[in-house]
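Students often ask why inverse folding is considered easier than folding. One informal answer: many sequences map to the same fold, so there is more than one right answer. In these notes we will look at a single instance of the problem. The structure comes first.
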């Protein structure tokens, strides 16, 4: 379908562009203990130590990385406050592999995080980042539909509570 932000759009799923993402070699070589990525000046910066304490204005919280590192995603999101501008929504069971499970299939507080962000009026991006490489085309559609429905449900649930 075309190029979008360096990704190849391979189709639409429920009205949402589906992108095929190439391997980011910088991230692939980075130790998994670094859960937060910062992208100042369009470059990716990986930090040592507690990434929450780093001075970056805009930070991405990747829930699959949080599972891998055993980090408390809710505490990290709260500590980041308005510096949190991008969320990679995925789940994980805490293995040493970056699992990118469908939200709700692992141990991360995905629903709670989305609801907390919605209550606070989060205006950043939430991107579903699930692995579908080793599943059939039919299962890929099921997994993507489930992940998208999960995100929409928990972002909307918090909005309903506010009214």
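Output (designed amino acids):
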């Amino acid at each position: 379908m075309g190029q979008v932000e360096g990704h190849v759009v391979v189709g639409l799923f429920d009205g949402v562009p589906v992108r095929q993402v190439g391997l980011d070699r910088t991230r692939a070589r980075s130790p998994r203990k670094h859960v937060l990525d910062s992208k100042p000046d369009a470059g990716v910066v990986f930090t040592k130590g507690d990434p929450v304490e780093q001075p970056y204005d805009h930070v991405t919280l990747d829930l699959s990385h949080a599972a891998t590192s055993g980090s408390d995603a809710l505490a990290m999101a709260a500590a980041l406050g308005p510096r949190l501008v991008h969320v990679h929504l995925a789940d994980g069971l805490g293995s040493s592999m970056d699992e990118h499970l469908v939200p709700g299939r692992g141990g991360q507080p995905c629903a709670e995080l989305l609801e907390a962000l919605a209550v606070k009026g989060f205006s950043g991006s939430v991107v579903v980042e699930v692995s579908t490489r080793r599943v059939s085309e039919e299962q890929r559609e099921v997994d993507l539909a489930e992940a998208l429905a999960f995100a929409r449900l928990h972002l909307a649930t918090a909005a309903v509570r506010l009214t």
